[in-house]
Amino acid sequence: MADDKKPRSLATQAASKVPKMVRTNMAATLKAKEEGKKVAYAYIQDAQDEILRAMDIVPAWGESFSGVCAAKRDAEQYLQKAESDNFSRSLCTYATCNLGFDMFREELKGEPVPGAPWGGMGRPDMIIGSAQQLCDPRIKWPQATQHYLSDVPVFVGNMYYPPFDPKVDQRSVEKFYVKYATEELHECVKFCEKHTGKKMDWDRLEEIVALSDKTWDLFVDTYDLRKAMPTPMDTGDAMNTMVPLSFMLGTQEAYDFYRDLNAELKQKVAEKKGVADNEKYRLLWGAGLPSWFALGDFQYFNDKGAVFPAEVTYRIAEKLSRLDIPETSDPLEHIAWRFIRYYTHWYDKARKRPGSTPKVERIIELVEDYKLDGVVFHSAFSCRSWHAGIMHQAATLKKVYGDIPVLIMEGDIVDVSSYNEVETHNRIDGFVETLENYKRAEATRKCAM
Asked: How far apart are CA 77 and CA 337, in angstroms?
């Protein structure tokens, strides 16, 4: 999340409130012991958020902490600490940053790590992970953490969803995956009950899941306001405004945040206030986690009239009516359906386009809906699985749109040593020239029709 000492000059009021929210989340992990609450290491998009909330378990979000360290350019000491125990820097730097922090804290016998951003995180009572099919370290990160926190119990689920196969209708196998995921979530509840000494309040869980559903829909409605020309908010802000959905799902605070953001964006649209003084180029952040230490690059784009009305990264919700989730009396089964359908609902479109994938169809949908002129990808060297397929996605877009401008930036999410500002800005300058030529050619082509 963006460093609160360096706000973007055109940030929304809502985005400017996020650093305080992140700091509050981290402080809660340090205060939990005083309040008699348990702390669990947790990971983004794990489908276990509502379980934690319903059982008053305080989540300590690993990716969020590493993002803060990166934004403050204070991750190097933790990366080096992990390297000292033979963790390669080419591994996920979210994970190695956390591991280095854990190593320091254990050497201090659980005491706060001096100088840790915003006080760091409290020592967990449990680790609750979700491997998915999204991320390399989701299985190994909790296991590696337990090497240093040997007394801390671990639960890692899988939350599988049907892999895309152009020859298979996913609906023929969805129920199997939902059944598997539902049973896995029930096992997670049992794990939490065992290690908290509390029983699940199923009525409360149902209320929290309903609140999450409302938040999902409000998030999508709010982000759709960015279709306006000029766009009232771009990806530079979205890398902050994703925090309540990603790390506070199932809380009233998250819902209220998007209610306020919705009102702010509607006002900006009515007043025709855009991100850039002169919006010339509308871009998609097509894939890839950002360099948290270089979010100012979005401002560099904006200053050249280039804005990002939409992004794939951290846009982790779709309207529930679109997902067509079956009715169920089990809130955990509902979570499973919501999780799986989020990934599979692009499969039908992908099967209809030879050589396409669900990720490509999602990009095409955003390009069309938001009337975008080009696509920017970011390939982070330490995040292989999330960034896999970028070259194929770019090539497929070229087949669909011809000469649509595509920029593939290279760097990392946490490791600032991978970043060269001058080189990055030179590449952005060249890309903006390509955008200008593309738009001129498109205008000439339309006039000739």
From this structure: 41
Contact predicate 379/286, CB 8 Å: no
DSSP-based three-state secondary structure for 64: helix
Strand partners, 266: none
| Residue 206 CB contacts under 8 Å (≥ 6 apart), including other chains | 331
User: What does the alpha-carbon distance between residue 419 and residue 83 come to, in Å, rounded to a whole number?
Assistant: 19
For residue range 237-284, what is the model confidence (pLDDT) as tens digits?
999 999 999 999 999 999 999 999 999 999 999 999 999 989 999 999
Joined together, the tokens standing for residue 148 give 């240093």
Q: Which two three-digit tokens encode residue 234?
A: 């771009």
Residues in contact with 202: Cβ distance below 8 Å, sequence separation at least 6, in sequence order = 331
Residue type, 332: L
- Report how far apart, in Å, the C-alpha atoms of 22 and of each of 3, 129, 143 are: 11, 20, 26
**How many CA atoms are closer than 13 Å to the CA of 371, on its beta-carbon side?**
10
Which residues make Cβ contacts (< 8 Å) with residue 156, sequence separation at least 6?
A: 127, 128, 129, 130, 131, 138, 139, 142, 143
DSSP class of residue 157?
E
More confident residue, 440 or 50: 50
Cβ proximity of 381 and 418 under 8 Å = yes
What are the φ/ψ torsions at residue 330 (nearest 5 degrees)?
-100, 115
Main-chain dihedrals φ then ψ at residue 97, nearest 5 degrees: -60, -45
Whether the full predicted model's pTM is greater than 0.90, yes or no, is: yes
Q: What are the residue ranges spanned by the domains of the chain?
A: 13-448
Q: What number is the average pLDDT over the span 304-333? A: 96
Cα 384 to Cα 61, 67, 93, 204, 371: the distances in Å are 20, 17, 11, 38, 29
pLDDT of 207 above 90: yes
126: left (phi over 0), alpha (psi -120 to 50) or beta: beta
Residue 63 reports pLDDT greater than 90: yes
Which DSSP category does 309 fall into?
A: E
Query: Residue 366: what residue type?
Result: L
User: Read out DSSP for 185-225?
Assistant: HHHHHHHHHHHHS----HHHHHHHHHHHHHHHHHHHHHHHG
